[in-house]
Amino acid sequence: KEYTETVYVGQEAGTPVLQVHAMLDGRSEQPHFYLCGSRRPPYALWFQMDVQTGELSLSKTLEETDFMPLLNALPDVYALFMALNSVSKRAPCSRNSAHITLDFVNGSMPRCTQTDMKELCFPHRDTSNPHIIENRFPGVLRQLRRLTRLAVCPNYTITYGVESGETCGHLLTDLETLVVTAPLDREESENYRLLLVCTVQTESVVTKVETPLDVFVDDEDDNAPYVNGTDTAEVVISFNRTKVGVTSWLCRYVGTLLSSESWVKDTFDIKGTFSERRASPGGIRESVYDYQLILKRNLDITENRTVFLDYLVNDTTYPGLEGTVLLHFNVTILPVQIRFANITHVFTLPRKASVYAQVGRICVENCLEFDGFSVSYQLEVPDKNISSELLSCFSAISITQAPDRMLGLLYVNNSGALSKPGCQDLDYTVVAQEEHTQLVATNVSQESQQLLSCAENRQRDDCEASQGLGATTGACQWRQGSEKGISENYSTCSPDLRTCPDSVCDAVESRDTSICPQDCTTESVTGGHERGLSGSGIRAGYGTCYCFSEKCFWFP
Amino acid sequence: WVDCIQASEMCSQDSRCSPRYRVMRQCLVGKEKDAMLDNNRDCKAALEVLHNSSLYDCRCKRAMKNELQCLQNYWTIHMAEKDCNPCLNATKACNLNSLCKRHRSSYITTCSRSDTNKGESCNRKRCHKTLRAFMDRVPPELSQRLIFCPCQSEGCAERRRQTIVPDCSYTDKEKPNCLELRRVCRADALCRSRLADYIANCWMAPNTVGTCPNQDNHQACLNSLARLIGTEMTPNYVDNSFTNWTISPWCNCIGSGNQEEECMNFLRYFTDNTCLSNCRSSELQ
Amino acid sequence: SRPCSLRKLELTVTELGLGFESDETIQLQYCSGQCDKKKLNYDLVMKHMVEKGILGRGRKNRVSKEPCCRPTKFEKSLGYYGNKTHNIISNVSAKSCGCV
Ligand SMILES: [Ca+2]
Ligand SMILES: [Ca+2]
Ligand SMILES: [Ca+2]
Ligand SMILES: [Ca+2]
Known about the structure:
By secondary structure, chain A is mainly β. Chain A has four domains: 109 residues, Immunoglobulin-like (Sandwich); 102 residues, Immunoglobulin-like; 77 residues, no CATH class; 102 residues, no CATH class. Helices cover 7% and strands 34% of the residues of chain A. In chain A, strands 1-7-6-3 form a four-stranded mixed sheet. In chain A, strands 8-14-13-10 form a four-stranded mixed sheet. Chain A has a four-stranded mixed sheet with strand order 15-20-19-16, with no helix packed on it. In chain A, 28% of the residues are buried. About 6% of the residues of chain A have low confidence. With 285 residues, chain B is mainly α. Chain B has two domains: 81 residues, no CATH class; 198 residues, GDNF binding domain (Annexin V, domain 1). A two-stranded antiparallel ribbon of chain B has the order 1-2. Chain B is globular. The two termini of chain B are 22 Å apart. Chain C has one domain: Cystine-knot cytokines (Cystine Knot Cytokines, subunit B, Ribbon), CATH 2.10.90.10. Chain C contains one helix and six strands. The mean pLDDT of chain C is 89. Chains in contact: A-B, A-C, B-C.
């Protein structure tokens, strides 16, 4: 589809410039060749195309004066466009057109003795490689003998041959042209690497000049789609209810879900992803579609059913009858039961624990695998007719949801109740249930907090002597950093070293930034540090960290 | 290669090399050696000349005869090399220029900040914009010295690869097909013209004489390559190799179908480009 | 000595002492110099208060008796490369100084 030739001053009207060829779909076809392009440059008129043969020749003798305006305007390469099988002479260039590049040289054609053998055989700037669509009728692929040089060395005999074992006899030369002898099959070979040999015979010597040529075979949809391996995927949906297992198929093109049931249509989707693979290293490229079953909506946890999905993949451009492939997904949806693995949890808590001190965490069975729905935890309110003293004991502990809505975090809500002698053994019933609706935020107005933040302390002694918000034992705890430079293990004062600092602002900590500003601060930080990954809190720092309310500082 | 004893003998017989080698040894004596290598003209000139001598590539074999002397010769030049890190010096030059420092800090800030709004690692569009501002407004002596600094170690080449914050400006979740990337680029007026500019200034057709278009104009090629940074076609070093570096946009030719040859030809504008691969040796050192 | 003004210093990021590691050289701008010209009645009163013991001594009662030379504006954040990532430091280099 790319042709290149050089044109010189003094070439006479009627001399051939180059020959183009079209590969045919069948014996009955007859190609017609036209120069195309609606806005053709003036120099296009200097050339004519033979409608029947495809030979481009000069329509006028080229004069030096013709070249002058060109040379001032542009470098010496000009492009002419040419269309194949075009209907009208003035037709715009279609996708079927080929591209001719002509080099104008402001000088006369070199004489025979001045011409390099390589020049005589091959256009020197031509680096294009022919592409042939597979299954086309055999025929001439390319003119090898340079038409412009036919008259330069009349006493020389110039012939061409192919020297390469890889063509399997599909590509030959007939001394002047390169010929395709049989329809090519891309699925057999995508690329033929030829070595063209030009033999120049003078009266005394024989010279051989070589040039490599890659012939590419372009693909056509002449292979039916097929499934590599099994055409059935077994899918089980249980804890994870957002998306579904992957299955992969080796085949091609578009598909439809064969189901009239609206529940299936609303729930499932199938996504195909295209890729290209080689069956073996250096082998033929194959188009591969992987089909994935996708859940369009979250499933109810009580859903319990089995569905069989058929998916029809249709290769719409395949001409034969076997252009379809049927894929099967056998889907089993299991209900999820929300229950505690252990019925009884026992947590021990010092009486001195401060408000917001973390008591413990609870989680229903398999909770960490849950996806696509969430679980809420609540403390069951005791009977109304219990004593007011016991009721005040109840207020000692509260529960909150972790942000991922899978864990329940128990924490001290009322430290006053905790220290009452009557509230020794606190019994709570936790109710876990699937969360359908947003919980109404039970924002109990906090009793005025007298306690300060542990994080305000800069020194070990001060820290361990202080009480602070969220301190489990009532007293703050000191963490002594060890590493040099910016480190995750920095020195700081914390209410509970199990949860603070750990780079995560958890559900209890986020109730009040003063509990653990190291994990929860959103304000700018002074000193060498790295922010937490979510943008809040501090991941690592240099030296000791202390904070006043939300504002944190470091000293080395 | 030659061993460093042979190399130093060869140097002492060379009238150009031998006085420089003596100067270099002077430069490396005493506490002030860092400052000497950075600022002293004679030391800098000596190092430059020695770069092209066989002393620079010499090696020592373990347990060879005169191993210690060989190693001393080796380190005379390579210690100087270590202290003379062209990429670090380029950074310093940028930091000491207020315009360069401001634009560099600006793109580092934009390109390394995570974009929590969209749940993406960064805002690629804004990153590209600040990178283009850096390339357009900072004098090329400073910006290109930073991007095309010559490296003699992997650490240096990694710093060079990281210069444009590639996690944000270059790499993406998936590597697109190069023809698809070209289509996206051509749909954007700025990218389209900068790509055309790059090909016009950097691409030499095979079988042509010279290394770069326009009378071997390397600088024009580097300029147009630098101007692609901050477009969809942003090029970068593909790895931290310093001996055999390759610059390419973030794409490949998988899935090209019948256009595989076209795709490979396009990718070769970057990966197999005589003008680009000759740029460093002639323009940057 | 010189009045309060902007001074410049070349050093590496590591030498800033903030724990950041990088051998990149930066230009640090800082404020230094005398603020005598900006002394106000307030400063004289405070000096007197402290000397006469009217303001109690001790850690919690420290007062400044003189205006001091501080940055009034900072340069935009400084970006650098070190330890295999890029990083940003803000409020580290002064853009202008003043006596406060
Ligand atoms: Ca076929
Ligand atoms: Ca095919
Ligand atoms: Ca098809
Ligand atoms: Ca935490």
